[in-house]
Amino acid sequence: MRKPQADQETYYRGIPTVPYDLLKELALAFVASGIVIFVLALVMSSPEVPPLTIQTWAQQDPVDFVTTATSELAGTSFSAAYGPPYTDGSDSVQVLGPFAPQQWAGNAVHLDTAQDFVLGPLGTAAVGNPDLTSALSTYGAADDATKQSWLAAYTSALGTATTQSGEVVVPAGSYGPVPVLMANLIAVAHSGGLDELLLAGGHFFQTNYTKPLLFMGDGGYLAGLAADQHLLGSQWGMMNETGSYPGQAWLWLYSMWYQLPPYNTAPNADLLVVLTMLALTLVLAFVPHIPVLRDIPRWIPIHRLVWRDYYRWRRTRPSSETA
Amino acid sequence: MSTPSSHPAPEPGDATWTGAARRLLERRLPLTHLLPSRQPFFVGSWVYVFGVVAITALIWVIGSGIVLAFFGPGWFHVSGVGRFVNSIHFWSVQLFFFFVVLHLWGQYFMASWRDGRATTWLVGVVIFVVGLVTGFTGYVSQQNLDAQWIAINAKDGINATGAGSFFNVLDFGQMYGIHVMLLPITVTMLVVLHVVQVRMRGVVKPIEPQAPGGRRNAPTDVA
């Protein structure tokens, strides 16, 4: 690569110069952009839809909450079968031929949905609650086949569940202690206790919301709220914000691939989109070295508009005087 | 004994690292290039303003971000003043990306990588990409419904690359720390580097319509 053009006088030889106050331009731009930003901030404010809590979810859609919790207990939820980095499953592992970075990275979180989302919090809440203590004991003592039998029957019954005073009611059936577990779990959730229990994890200071977010993400209620705010992937949600605010509009290209075949039907769509964007980013970074792409600016004469004064000046100047 | 001087002349035999660094800076980036008071007349186009406005928007982003970070991530949810500062932060980010994109397209159609400026273009692209990550970590740090949903959805794309094992978008503490410390410093350093690159070489000359052989000062002249 050529050495830097330290001698700008040589580089610009023959081209007239004009007074130019860099710092003044910067100051004026700072004030002008500040005025625009302040006006927008005053008039438009900023997006602020409160976060969903597990308490609100359990209160507003108890059937969805219990259905999700049952799937966590059965190990059939989206998160339970996800795979790395949350579990040892494989349902959400994406590969491209032998390229399997998600698998290679491994399980970092070691999530156990039954224990972390249901049995653990209930164990804490069972203090002073003999019914719950007994139900937990019964459930713990049962073999896996029996547990799955109870859970399958209860999950099926949830399809016709109703709610009475915030509690989920299902037809009578052979569910073992599962209804007691779920009644207590939703009671804890109603009180707001489950939000705290999922976050606590044995520590006082908390900033990691992995567990409560995965739990809420497994349900349908949060997705419904997101759909109302045009945030779903099929709604180009990556570019949107809650309300009528602009979102990350600069992610339009990233979002676009998810709408188009083969990405929109591929089981490894995320990996394909990321790799596509990585390739396009490298192309953008190395445009100066890529034939055709680096020639387009000459073919599309937008530069003639940008530098129209220069070309006008050049036409009126004898060719022997130009650099 | 040498006579002390407030402006000592460069010593020919000065083999110190410090002396070499000073001479390199004086040669590559003299102050007249860093802070010019005259420029070629063709910089009068409005296209040249896009980059400047992007920088000033970034100053507003960082300024408002410092206030938000000082009072903590929960402040703007419970304070009217905090909400206003957050609004400044939000709109300055929008303005920043708007002008960064305009600047990028403008420089593309001016083929500004010519005459030894390919690394300046490269650093500009890196700023854009790091800016995207900075914006993303900010969106998932908002502590509202949008932050919840973005985190839950974005995790799949990040996990697919294997990065989810060390870059957990569901971990607010990690995202917030990266957003308010690591990435702003990175973006700022890259922007400083980008501006220094531009000032070292000066703005690129216009594309010559009748370049001899169609090559001189053509978009292909990256070296």
Oligomer: heterodimer
Number of strands of chain A: 3
Compute the number of helices of chain B: 8
Q: What's the overall geometry of chain A? A: elongated
Specify which chain pair forms the largest interface.
A-B, 104 and 101 residues
Q: Return the average pLDDT of chain B rounded to an integer.
A: 90
Order of helices and strands of chain A: HEHHHHHHHEEHHHHHHHHH
Class from secondary-structure proportions of chain A: mainly alpha
Q: What's the CATH topology label of the domain at 111-201 in chain B?
A: Cytochrome Bc1 Complex, Chain C
Question: CATH top level of the domain at 111-201 in chain B?
Answer: Mainly Alpha
What does this structure look like?
The complex is a heterodimer of chains A (323) and B (223). With 323 residues, chain A is an all-alpha fold. Chain A folds into 3 domains: 67 residues, no CATH class; 175 residues, no CATH class; 49 residues, no CATH class. In chain A, strands 2-3 form a two-stranded antiparallel ribbon. In chain A, helix 4 packs antiparallel against helix 8. Chain B has 223 residues and is mostly helical. Among the domains of chain B are: 53 residues; 91 residues, Cytochrome Bc1 Complex, Chain C (Up-down Bundle), CATH 1.20.810.10. Chain B has 8 helices and 1 strand, in the order ααβαααααα. In chain B, helix 3 runs antiparallel to helix 5, helix 5 runs antiparallel to helix 6 and helix 6 runs antiparallel to helix 8. Chain B is globular and about 60 Å long. The termini of chain B are far apart. About 2% of the residues of chain B have low confidence. Chains A and B meet through strand 1, helix 2, helix 5, helix 11 and helix 12 of A and strand 1, helix 3, helix 5, helix 6 and helix 7 of B. Strand 1 of chain A pairs antiparallel with strand 1 of chain B, so a sheet runs across the interface.
